[in-house]
């Protein structure tokens, strides 16, 4: 069954090397900042850019196909958090579900 987390994630894990996902982890703090930021027009450029990504991600029709580059980038950022996350009850979006998925690819 396809649920909230799409095939795009599976696809991302399958194709992307774990190392390249880890390289994206520098963007994770901006992602976290953006989801916690309540300003519509934040003075931080990176925060605004990330918010645009997140908004796009929620509406994108291509996301499930895995063909949208913007969505793939966001997925990789999420993956890189998950790879480094040791929290059992993490509040990061989709973290626990992604952890289950990512396990298969790390073994
Ligand atoms: Zn902000
Ligand atoms: Zn997209
Ligand atoms: Zn987490």
UniProtKB/TrEMBL annotation:
Q: Report the Pfam families cross-referenced here.
A: zf-TAZ
Q: What is its EC number?
A: 2.3.1.48
Keyword tags: Chromatin regulator, Metal-binding, Nucleus, Transcription, Transcription regulation, Transferase, Zinc, Zinc-finger
SUPFAM superfamilies recorded: TAZ domain (SSF57933)
Gene Ontology molecular function: any one: transcription coactivator activity
Instruction: Give the boundaries of each TAZ-type zinc finger.
Output: 1-98
User: Is Metal-binding tagged as a keyword?
Assistant: yes
Which InterPro entries does its entry note? Answer: Histone_AcTrfase_Rtt109/CBP, TAZ_dom_sf, Znf_TAZ
Query: Where's the TAZ-type domain?
Result: 1-98
Q: What class of enzyme is it?
A: transferase
Q: Does the keyword Transcription apply?
A: yes
Q: Where is the protein localized?
A: Nucleus
The record's Gene Ontology cellular component field reads: histone acetyltransferase complex; nucleus; transcription regulator complex
Predominantly, its location class is nucleus
Any one of the GO BP annotations: positive regulation of transcription by RNA polymerase II
Q: Which reaction does it catalyse?
A: L-lysyl-[protein] + acetyl-CoA = N(6)-acetyl-L-lysyl-[protein] + CoA + H(+)
Give the protein name, as stated in the record: histone acetyltransferase
Species of origin reads Drosophila gunungcola (fruit fly)
Source lineage: Eukaryota, Metazoa, Ecdysozoa, Arthropoda, Hexapoda
